[in-house]
Every structure is written in structure tokens, then in C-alpha cells.
Specification:
Elements lengths: L3 E6 L3 E10 L2 E11 L3 E3 L2 E4 L1 H18 L5 E5 L5 E5 L2 E3 L2 E2 L9 H8 L2 H8 L8 H10 L8 E4 H10 L6 H5 L13 H6 L16 E5 L2 E4 L5 H7 L8 E5 L2 E8 L6 H5 L3 E4 L4 E8 L2 H10 L5 H10 L19 H8 L7 H27 L5 E5 L6 H11 L2 E5 L3 H15 L1
Parallel strand pairs: 1-6, 6-12, 13-17, 17-18
Antiparallel strand pairs: 1-2, 2-3, 4-5, 5-9, 7-8, 7-10, 11-12, 13-14, 14-16, 15-16
Length: 425
């Protein structure tokens, strides 16, 4: 029986999941889990890439203890972040996407190439942490001068396993520099920003084998976790989806990019998928209640939190995508700043957060239906947030769609699916 290993790393944790096919279904077993998170260093938010590498290798060792033969493995992570490389060595620190260093680079990028032109060329929504703005911040800081290139986070970790540098398509598209027309890095953007041409290699598709580690083939899945998550959703047809984690990524599969003015004004992204375009929008997600819980009631069971929130009568809402919620020192203070008066207890903050998230989903669904000219009946929710029955009910009521909540490891399943399909070819 052939077994495959999916290594799925999010902003707060990572997991190693072994999968295999049995009686026509994919069976899985988690063999390793580890914490992740941003660390503050010299006033910046950074990733500990050495710790990530140690955990990746430790998890592989655990998988091999239980399953002596593993056909292949692949790694997916969040998008936009990368490691600058000096030959085979990383250039540290490795900055995290929530760091504020892009404040100066964003307007300077748009002086050289307007956002409307960027969107027309790439179809990627504006996010202050897009790779394009991070790379330009590194250029301004002189960090690119000694670099030979960059590797997106999962490609860096697979390089540490194989010694092979790779550049996977779905993850590259998240950064705002890949042509929606050609599916390769856009030479006009690179030239306008005077970024080193040597950084931008041909992109590889999911399924490409890049090397080997301890007798296991290492290949590219859709290394952006949302790309793998969409592959892992067992949809009956092409309906709406939300990959619900730190971020809520809401979208649908489409055949060709939509880069018109309406998509631009509503800030929709055309990200690369496995044979299709993921037309989607990044919305604030479980980041809000997670941070509120850390601050207001650490360790309190989520079931109690949602039950109390449902029983409260605090009905004010906030715009969950307001930049104030991106990385506040105090999430409670951020809510207070946006409300006419603060809730009298912790349950009121959670009620406000969940009801505001549901309204954000409703608005985004209206936009996607207008932009695509299609009406959708169902909304599939996967990821950690799918377990939140209270938020699922609020979403169904607000959006008027049938919510199908699948508390499955969709990202790991998509990662495994791509590996299994690659084996058949």
C-alpha cells in the first residue's frame, strides 16, 4: 500500500499527515504536530525558519518510524512570505507578512507602476503584505544586493530537504508579480521596479518531482495552502468555498482570470489553481476571536465562548477588514476604537466578532456573484473555522446559502491528492 506524507504549515501550527487510498477513499493519520508563530526581533515580526526546518525533519522521522515506506512528500504553507538566499544560505531575518516594513515601499511601488496597472497585469488583490511590496522593501533596505534569489516558504523548506531550488506556480501568484495572461513572472513589473532579473525563475506546476529526502520523493503540491485546500474540498459541483483559518479565504473556481474594473474595485484575486483560477478574496478570519481569547479569557473552551456569545444581546458590528485589526497590540482596544460603546463583558466582544465575520462573508458573496454573473447555492467551509457551529449558523442566516461545514484537514487532503495524482502519471 503506497503512503504519502503531507506537511501542512500554518501561521500558528504545523502538522504531518500520512495518507493512503483504501477501498476507494483516502485515509489519513496525523503523526506529528508542532507550534508556529511570529517572533519579535529588533522591532520587526519574523519567522524562525531554523525551528521550522527542525520540526519538518522531526515529523518526517516520526512518519518513517510508523510507516517504513513513504512514496512521496510535499509541503504547503501560507503565501506571500519568502526567504532571501545567498547561494545555499538564507539571509536573515526572515520577515513575516504582518510586519510593518512595507509602509514605505507600497507608495513607492505605486509611483513606478500604478495599482490599476498591476491589477490589470496580475489580477491579484491589494494586500499590504503582498510579496511585491516585501521585495521592494528589501530593495530599499539594500538586502537584495547580496542575494542570488528568493524562495517562497514551502520551497525553502523543501530546498533544505533536497538541495534543489524550485518555484511553484500557485504560491508565486499570491505575491502580485505573476502575469494573469502567461502564468509566468511579469517581466514588465520586474523591469519597472528594477528588481534583479536573476530572482525570477520559470514557474513549476503542482506535481513536479524536485528531489529526494531519506528515500522519499519530494514533489510540489499546490504549495500555497489555500491552493491545496481547494483541491481537498469534495464539492458536488463548482460552488463557493471558504478556507477558514487565521484568514477566511472566500472564492470559487473559474476558467479564466477576471481583471476588469469591477473586480479591481471589489479587490478580488485571481490566484493560480490546479488547472483553473481561484477567484477569491482574503477576509479577516479566526485571527479576531483567537486574539480576543488570548487577551480576555486564555484557555477557555471554545464551546463555552460561542454559547455565551449566542446568548448575549450586543448587536453592534465592525468592519472586520479594517486595517486596525491586522496586528494590534490589543485586539480588545481595536474593537473599542471601532464601536460606539464597548461591550460590558467578554461574550459581547466575541458576539460582535462572529456576527461581523458573517456580515463580511455576506458582502463578499454578493460581490463574487455580481462579478462572475453566477448565482451559487452552496457554501463549503473547511479548515479550523468549520468546527464553529455558531459562526456557521450566522453565516448561513446572513448569506442565504446552504452552508456545508467540513471540519476536515482539507489542505492536507489536497496536498495528498496532488501527490497521488502525480504517481499515476
Amino acid at each position: 500500500m503506497e503512503r504519502y506524507l503531507a506537511i501542512d504549515i500554518g501561521a500558528s501550527s504545523g502538522r504531518h499527515i500520512v495518507g493512503w487510498q483504501e477501498n476507494g477513499a483516502v485515509k489519513t493519520k496525523e503523526v506529528y504536530r508542532f507550534p508556529n508563530g511570529m517572533a519579535e526581533a529588533d522591532g520587526h515580526l519574523t519567522w524562525d525558519i531554523d525551528a521550522l526546518e527542525r520540526h519538518v525533519k522531526a515529523g518526517i522521522d516520526e512518519a518513517l518510524k510508523e510507516f517504513t515506506q513513504i512514496e512521496s512528500l510535499s509541503i504547503d504553507t501560507w503565501g506571500v512570505d519568502y526567504v532571501l538566499m545567498d547561494g545555499s544560505k538564507p539571509i536573515l531575518p526572515c520577515y513575516a507578512y504582518r510586519d510593518s516594513r512595507m509602509e514605505k515601499s507600497i507608495p513607492l511601488v505605486h509611483e513606478k507602476i500604478s495599482f490599476s496597472d498591476l491589477y490589470r497585469r496580475t489580477g491579484i488583490q491589494f494586500q499590504p503584505f503582498n510579496t511585491i511590496y516585501q521585495l521592494y522593501a528589501d530593495k530599499l533596505a539594500g538586502r537584495l544586493e547580496g542575494a542570488c534569489g528568493f524562495l517562497m516558504m514551502p520551497e525553502y523548506l523543501m530546498f533544505r530537504l533536497t538541495g534543489v531550488k524550485s518555484h511553484e506556480y500557485t504560491n508565486a501568484t499570491t505575491g502580485g508579480m505573476v502575469s494573469a495572461e502567461t502564468g509566468e513572472f511579469d517581466e514588465e513589473i520586474i523591469r519597472a521596479l528594477e528588481l534583479p532579473k536573476r530572482f525570477f525563475k520559470p514557474l513549476q506546476q503542482p506535481g513536479a518531482v524536485i528531489g529526494e529526502y531519506k528515500g522519499i520523493k519530494v514533489l510540489l503540491c499546490a504549495t500555497h495552502d489555500t491552493g491545496s485546500a481547494v483541491e481537498g474540498i469534495p464539492m458536488e459541483r463548482n460552488d463557493l468555498f471558504i478556507s477558514s483559518g487565521t484568514w477566511s479565504v472566500l472564492g470559487a473556481k473559474i476558467e479564466k482570470p477576471i481583471t476588469d474594473q469591477q473586480s479591481l474595485s471589489t479587490n478580488y484575486s485571481n490566484e493560480g489553481g490546479v488547472g483553473y483560477i481561484r477567484y477569491l478574496k482574503n477576509l479577516m478570519g479566526m485571527w479576531l476571536p483567537n486574539r480576543l481569547r488570548e487577551e480576555l479569557c486564555p484557555g477557555k473552551p471554545w464551546g463555552e465562548i460561542t454559547q455565551e456569545a449566542a446568548e448575549k444581546h450586543f448587536d453592534h458590528l465592525v468592519d472586520v477588514n479594517d486595517p486596525i485589526f491586522m496586528a494590534p497590540e490589543s485586539m480588545k482596544a481595536a474593537f473599542d476604537a471601532k464601536l460606539p460603546h464597548p461591550p460590558k463583558c467578554a461574550a459581547g466582544y466575541f458576539r460582535c466578532a462572529y456576527r461581523s465575520l458573517a456580515q463580511g462573508y455576506k458582502q463578499a458573496i454578493g460581490e463574487i456573484e455580481r462579478n462572475t454573473g453566477k448565482t451559487y447555492q452552496k457554501l463549503y467551509i473547511v479548515g479550523g473555522g468549520a468546527k464553529n457551529q455558531y459562526l456557521n449558523r450566522l453565516t448561513e442566516e446572513a448569506a442565504g446559502k446552504q452552508v456545508i461545514a467540513l471540519p476536515i484537514e482539507a489542505t492536507a487532503l489536497g496536498n495528498l491528492k496532488i501527490q497521488m495524482e502525480a504517481k499515476k502519471q
